[in-house]
Amino acid sequence: MExxxxxxxxxxGASRGVGKGIALGLGEQGATVYVTGRTESGGATPTPLPGxxxxxxxxxxxxxxxxxxIACDHRxxxxxxxxxxxxxxxxGRLDVLVNNVWGGYEYFWDGxxxxxxxxxxxxxxxxxxxxxxxxxxxxxxxxxxAAPTMVAQGSGLIVNVSSEGxxxxxTGVAYGAAKAATDHMIACMAHExxxxxxxxxxxxxxxxxxxxxxxxxxxxxxxxxxSPQFVGQAVAALAADPQVHQFTGQVLRTSQLSQHYNDTxxxxxxx
Length: 271
Hints:
Elements: E1 8-11, H1 17-28, E2 32-37, H2 53-63, E3 66-71, H3 77-91, E4 96-99, H4 125-153, E5 156-161, H5 173-193, E6 198-204, H6 211-215, H7 228-240, E7 251-253, H8 254-260
Parallel strand pairs: 1-2, 1-4, 2-3, 4-5, 5-6, 6-7
Helix pairs in contact: 1-2, 1-7, 3-4, 4-5
């Protein structure tokens, strides 16, 4: 059942991984999904992982929605604003914003041996800067750009993709601090948006079988893991829920939402 026909979504950082899964989950329900990313077909590749923003858009369309690719580096505020303006100019509305883009993972592909950054004092300050600029700041700037349209509509959903790392002390100082910041940002946004009919939540996926996780599958127990599309199912269920405002300001987990909406991971190999 396509529950999001006529709805317009923007998913940032959707060339691959969780962002791509969310875009596909929304597309499966018939939404028009604008997807942003730095990796373009035929362009320079910022990471060694597969996936481009154009490929994601094409797969969204194949899944039943309408995918539109926007090349965007969210470390650049003006590119971010232009991306949101493009969506509103094209579609005339914006119903769902998913802030998924993030930074600070460069050591996975820049050749740095993991053990050389075993403590925060061994890491270059750029790791902190990247997590806050490409992550926290990008979430904030995109939300600032999107909020006026949602407030004028009297409706909308903002989802910050976060992590249990915000609540733990063993996931790295920069990562944990940045995720905690994005969670608190959502709580404060929800407070200011509450009377305007706009919902803001943080979402914690579980262990997701992204391209980078699968590269290290021999070292990780994937028995209890989620497909990227499972995260998309959770976001789509929220977007289709007329009572979604009950969750505003909260931290939600994909496992919690699957129980609430009686969803199973239809893309899991064991499903």
